[in-house]
Prior knowledge:
- The complex is a heterodimer of chains A (113) and B (111).
- By secondary structure, chain A is mainly β.
- Chain A has strands at residues 5-7, 10-13, 19-24, 31-38, 42-50, 53-57, 64-68, 74-78, 87-94, 103-104, 108-112.
- In chain A, 0% of the residues lie in helices and 53% in strands.
- In chain A, strands 2, 4, 5, 6, 9, 10 and 11 form a seven-stranded mixed sheet that branches. A four-stranded antiparallel sheet of chain A has the order 1-3-8-7, with no helix packed on it.
- In chain A, strand 5 (42-50) and strand 6 form a beta hairpin.
- In chain B, the strands form two sheets. In chain B, strands 2, 4, 5, 9, 10 and 11 form a six-stranded mixed sheet that branches.
- Chain B is 0% helix and 56% strand.
- Chain B is built from no helices and eleven strands.
- Chain A binds chain B through residues 4, 31, 33, 35, 42-43, 45, 48, 55-56, 58, 88, 90, 92, 98-99, 101-107, 109, and chain B through 31-32, 34, 36, 41-46, 49, 51, 87, 89, 91, 96-104.
Amino acid sequence: KAGVTQTPRYLIKTRGQQVTLSCSPISGHRSVSWYQQTPGQGLQFLFEYFSETQRNKGNFPGRFSGRQFSNSRSEMNVSTLELGDSALYLCASRRDRANEKLFFGSGTQLSVL
Amino acid sequence: EDQVTQSPEALRLQEGESSSLNCSYTVSGLRGLFWYRQDPGKGPEFLFTLYSAGEEKEKERLKATLTKKESFLHITAPKPEDSATYLCAVPRGDSSYKLIFGSGTRLLVRP
Lengths: 113, 111
């Protein structure tokens, strides 16, 4: 069974640009969550999607957005990039239940210059 | 406020030297506590879920336990391949599905 797949693996952008990250969940998983991981802040929740609807959102500015498609694949977009957006962006999926474990992808390492 | 605190921040052990990692939490209505292992440049890998005080789970050299206020990850006779960052997380106490992660314990096991 294939795991959570994230593309691209690495990305280098400059300030002011925008970026789109992609995530394919485990087959049968309908919930996709996104997390930002930095050395200083650790893992922080961005948002969660279920059946193409955003179910929850973390405390990030509106520059961070996402969407989920009918096949459960998800994309995350960051507009007007800032240096502080440099981080490892992790996608995780689960079938649904709140207390069910998350399966994480390997992440996209974004560097903003 | 829901909170997860892990200690120590970093731990260095000699191969075979057993120890424990701590995860203390503050959340209303615990709906599970999760332990993950993360290797550099990779996403967290699930280890255990604990649901109620007194529960214990084991996997190879790892054993996780849970009380009403904290969880411990015991590492018995560790090997260098156990070197990683260990994260614990709990779902928020509201109706959301957000996981709150601790800052992790970086474990280094030297041969």
